Automatic annotation (TrEMBL):
<dbReference type="InterPro" id="IPR028989">
    <property type="entry name" value="RimP_N"/>
</dbReference>
<dbReference type="Pfam" id="PF02576">
    <property type="entry name" value="RimP_N"/>
</dbReference>
<dbReference type="InterPro" id="IPR003728">
    <property type="entry name" value="Ribosome_maturation_RimP"/>
</dbReference>
<dbReference type="GO" id="GO:0005829">
    <property type="term" value="C:cytosol"/>
</dbReference>
<dbReference type="InterPro" id="IPR028998">
    <property type="entry name" value="RimP_C"/>
</dbReference>
<protein>
    <recommendedName>
        <fullName>Ribosome maturation factor RimP</fullName>
    </recommendedName>
</protein>
<keyword id="KW-0963">Cytoplasm</keyword>
<feature type="domain" description="Ribosome maturation factor RimP N-terminal">
    <location>
        <begin position="11"/>
        <end position="85"/>
    </location>
</feature>
<dbReference type="GO" id="GO:0000028">
    <property type="term" value="P:ribosomal small subunit assembly"/>
</dbReference>
<comment type="function">
    <text>Required for maturation of 30S ribosomal subunits.</text>
</comment>
<dbReference type="InterPro" id="IPR036847">
    <property type="entry name" value="RimP_C_sf"/>
</dbReference>
<dbReference type="Pfam" id="PF17384">
    <property type="entry name" value="DUF150_C"/>
</dbReference>
<feature type="domain" description="Ribosome maturation factor RimP C-terminal">
    <location>
        <begin position="88"/>
        <end position="157"/>
    </location>
</feature>
<comment type="similarity">
    <text>Belongs to the RimP family.</text>
</comment>
<dbReference type="GO" id="GO:0006412">
    <property type="term" value="P:translation"/>
</dbReference>
<keyword id="KW-0690">Ribosome biogenesis</keyword>
<dbReference type="InterPro" id="IPR035956">
    <property type="entry name" value="RimP_N_sf"/>
</dbReference>
Amino acid sequence: MSSVTETVTEMIQPILDQKGFYLVDLEYVKEGSSWYLRIYIDKPTGIDIEECALVNQIVSEKLDADYPDLIPNAYFLEVSSPGAERPLKTEADLQRAQGQYVHLSLYQKLAGQKVFEGTLTDLTEQELTLTYRVKTRVQTLTIPRKNIAAIRLAIEF
């Protein structure tokens, strides 16, 4: 993690805690000739545009006042929701996703498949349990965490 992302993470965490938000991800990247500081936030009931704008304003003012030399070049500050089908990257993400519909990809086939969508029903240190449908039958599958290549929230149709 770069010093910019570490410093900004430490700086905004108390702000987010106070507002009842949590940090999903933070990145400082160059795209083309422009630099972007992107902050993805959420809360249990979902985040809205006004809340993103509020955090943007607070972070912008705090960076300008307390850390004027942290980012030496011009950049765009973006604060947004992580999206409806966001990746689940941390243990806290997985804990919050219990009971929700997820999409996961595996490194090796399990029950003849490498891709599953279903409800994350249980979570331990070593594995997770997914309840999913095969046509009209509901099935439950316990998946070792070490076999999970990627997991994200999904929209159930």
